[in-house]
Amino acid sequence: MTLDPTTAERRALVTGATAGIGAAFARRLAADGWHLVLVARDAARLSEMATELGSRHGRAVEILSADLSTDDGCATVEQRLASDSPVHLLVNNAGISLNKPFLRSTAEDEARLLRLNVHAVMRLTLAALRPMTERRDGAVINVSSVAGFGAVMPGSTYSASKAWVTNFSDSVGQSARPFGVRVMALCPGYTRTEFHERAGINMSKTPEWLWLRAEDVVDDALRDLRKGKLVSIPAWKYKVAVAGLRHAPIRLLQAVARDTRSRIGRDER
Ligand SMILES: NC(=O)c1ccc[n+]([C@@H]2O[C@H](COP(=O)([O-])OP(=O)(O)OC[C@H]3O[C@@H](n4cnc5c(N)ncnc54)[C@H](OP(=O)(O)O)[C@@H]3O)[C@@H](O)[C@H]2O)c1
């Protein structure tokens, strides 16, 4: 596949495109010459983003207001992916965390997290891969997290949802490769966005040096996609952290996990 839109008309669909990592993807791709389809719930914010990108870069920017934690929202985006106007790059970026540990959570909140972080990613990847593999051209980036490499926040089910995204993308990426189509899991560490504030997670004690910029995460992601990686971990400090998560003794991991407990509530088990 070509990631160079100067050689042909290329279109990218980005979910969660109005804030954080998704907005950084949309800005970078528009600057690189991609036409865009932007997806989020807030229609007014989507319009502002489309106006900004359309006037600055002169690319066609479509917007789709859809709640991807619902069947209707997923169906709206699936229809766009199946339409005659092809999407060459899908960025499944929209995702949430919860601020309550599992023992104090509700089935409704947990289902909402799974519908957005897992179910929507599965549906949209499948909808995108059908036309991409037929054309033998296209790529999917599924935004996962370093949190998916271990149960580093006791009681948080976010890590489990991202473990699924990483494993899913790696596995499906291997089966799409012979068709000339790439699927890659993008696993950032802490990134300055609206994410933690939206979830009500207090990050005030997180040291400054751990934070990444969304623009740098996107740079690394696009570089790794070009290289054909199945799993991308932006920034050396997080590559080292993931190696630690994979190989460190379980007792050390449990000690680190105890330290993160206060972020999502003190009384969970
Ligand atoms: N920030 C981090 O530290 C970090 C680290 C690792 C991985 N990640 C992952 O990176 C991805 C992006 O997170 P972010 O930090 O950029 O978050 P963010 O700043 O909170 O932005 C979230 C975006 O998703 C959209 N969104 C939220 N719920 C949605 C829904 N139900 N349907 C459709 N769109 C929805 C939001 O727009 P609307 O509210 O208008 O829908 C917004 O555009 C997520 O998958 C997250 O898990 C983040």
Automatic annotation (TrEMBL):
Ketoreductase domain span: 10-189
Upper taxonomic lineage: Bacteria, Bacillati, Actinomycetota, Actinomycetes, Micromonosporales
GO molecular function, one term: oxidoreductase activity
Protein name: Short-chain dehydrogenase/reductase SDR
Pfam families reported in the protein's UniProt record: adh_short
UniProt key word Oxidoreductase: yes
GO CC entries: membrane
Species of origin: Micromonospora lupini str. Lupac 08
Superkingdom of this protein's organism: Bacteria
Keywords assigned: Oxidoreductase
Family: Belongs to the short-chain dehydrogenases/reductases (SDR) family.
